[in-house]
Amino acid sequence: MTTLTDPPKEQFRLSMLLYDTRYRSATIQVIAMIGFMLLAAWLISNTAQNLAALGKPIDFGFFSEPASYDINQRLLDYSSRDTHLRAALIGLLNTLVVAVLGCITATVLGVIIGVLRLSNNWIVARLMTIYVEGFRNVPVLLWIVFIMAILIETLPAPKAFRGDNATASMMLGDSVAVTNRGVYIPEPLFSNSLGNIHVFGESGLRFDISLDLLAILVVLGAGLWVSSYLRKRADRIQEQTGDRPVTWWQRLAVVVLPTGLVLVLLGFHLGYPELKGFNFQGGTHLRNSLIALWLALSLYTAAFIAEIVRAGIMAISKGQTEAASALGLRSNKIMSLVILPQALRVIIPPLISNYLNLTKNSSLAIAVGYMDITGTLGGITMNQTGRELETILLLMLVYLTISLSISAVMNWYNESVKLKER
Amino acid sequence: MSDIGFVRTEMLPEREPPASTVGALGWARANLFSNWFNSILTLASLYAIYAILAAVLPWVFSPTWNGASLNNCREILTAAGSVGEHGTSGACWGVIRERWIQLLFGFYPSELYWRPILAFVLLAVALAPVLFSDSVPSKMLIFSGLYPFIFPWLLWGGTIWGPIAALAGFVLGWVVYSAVSKTMSSLIGIVLGAVAALAWWFVLSGYFVGALDSILPIGIEAVESRKFGGFMLSITIGVVAIACSLPLGIVLALGRQSDLMIVKYICVGFIEFIRGVPLITLLFVASTLLNIFMPPGTNFDIILRVLIMVTLFASAYMAEVIRGGLAALPKGQYEGADSLGLNYWQAQRLIIMPQALKISIPGIVSTFIGVFKDTTLVSIIGLLDPLGLSNAIRADANWNGVVWELYGFIALMFFVFCFGMSRYSMYLERKLHTGHR
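Structure tokens for the assembled complex are given below, as produced in the milestone run.
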């Protein structure tokens, strides 16, 4: 009689680490880990030795020293007596300003150009093709310095606006002056201002919250909330009775009237730029460097966005439109319920990665002297303090944070619009 | 009754189509003036084209090809009578005539121009078996393999033993790998091969080159890196970065797709870090920090440092492109390779990579175009690429104030290169579009 015996228990042998696929992956990972640690240790020990030899141990104390350089385009108050930390903060805000402005303009331009490139008008389609190929195939840095040169060389100097035989004049009812030193636009002013809240006292991170702006935003937000409540009520009534009450004027009124009232109460008016002495005074001054960077980044990125939009529209098959109209949907409903949701699924991920590229390209501001975070922290602060390691690592960290937050948004969006497959 | 016919019995002669639907008029009606909105767009575009051409053409066609300086150009223009309200209006092409060769080669010694030219001609020869695989014999691939060692030698010059020592490192690594993997496991082979090659490059090859150079000094005149410039520099950085980043990118992409958790996280961390920071910060690292990361006393060339950082930059993007190709392959291909009993590397080499690389060619070309355009950034850290040279040329008293001609020339050159490459990638895409239709 035979008995079934268990297969002999295999003893673990050292050679199984190499030949047995069950253990080999662990061996490879351990080797990779050791190699990685060795590399890191080598780099760190080199750095430590070099820094010791230079007599510059890692030290972030320079952040509290006075920066003693000026930043001409800024959102918050800043003077050359402020610290390097504040200079870096101003630079970061400048980066974000040009990135946000650029993304908005690039999207608008890109959508228009992408749609026009699909136009059945031969000449318009060709022109847009030339635009896209022309901007995509020339480096963005060249566009930035080129547009900067155009602004400086071709626009009138402030003195051309003066006198009886002025060769240049202000635009839009004497409210906007376009000069070779930048663009002067009106600024919003409040004669019955509520004042500001100071945050963070006198430290490098201090900023003011304008109570006027806060009040306007609160009233506007409340108006929008009531308006959306009215829309939901109209939806409900439509579902119950089949008739939709006309609410557009109520919805408009609850937004516009209170906001307008608040503006009047605060004494809202515009401060216009005026020519005084050799330059314009008053108003908001957008410098050439900002305008050139903004324009160049928008025009360059718009060429890429145009291609994305074109691809997104072409990706939706004609059968979708036909099926939707066979269901009896009207053309605007077809667009908003059938075409756009599908096209956006194709368009949005590459669109966001282009926003990311635009934000990273904004670091080229240093070529035209716009003081963004690269110009302040990675430029003058680095040169003045001689702290290359600290400033550049921090600079990378800042950009990495911005990029990772944008890609987190992208992943969240991708997850939410992903086709729910069986 | 019978003489009244309601049915025509004979064919009518063909009539001409209406004049408004055929010929140039019909085409214009259909494509330019099909409705009022299109008509407005057409007229607006025509006006825009007219305005741009009217502003640019008289400027472009200016008789200043022989101008010796900006003032000389202005005199020529004044004599020709093209004077606008802001002084003379017209391009000063003399700067291009005098400096175009500098914009191409930088300050490279003029008697040695044949070397970069030969290097780029040989580049075309080395690329031919890769690009036009159906019409070039595949034996040429041997030359393509040797080319990475010829290229730097031709550009930088110096002793011939340097590139030979570099090549010997690869040979040594390969020999150790194949010897060890025959007797022991291939894993040990890879590790020992890498260790042997690294030991050769970092420790032994210095003595080897020094000894052989003193016995048998074969070499060509060395050229310093700071003499490199112009489009030669841009193309060098672009080509080296792409050539080195392709294998690195493949390794990173495979690492990111792999099941080994530690390997995967190292690769993901590297890729996301490089892709998350702008190239300019990496170039700052090259210009200020890289020497701090190296052993004390190391001081290597700025162009080499830039090449390292641009290669790392390109390899992260390349990894993502190749990962896209890997992800696009149907799962059946992996399973088919497994069912044939191929191991991981055999499957990658024979089944997966040929297909994945083919799918990702358009992405690889567009990465290359991107890197080539980004080489202009090196002007910010003081290298003399075309944009940096344009500043250097303006520093000359003769050409102080020349802006548009230089930018226009540089932009045109970049446009020709990049547009040509993007057309080539579209051709490849059509050619390689086999199956799965």
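Residues 23-54 of chain B form one domain. The mean pLDDT of chain B is 85. Further analysis is deferred to the final report.
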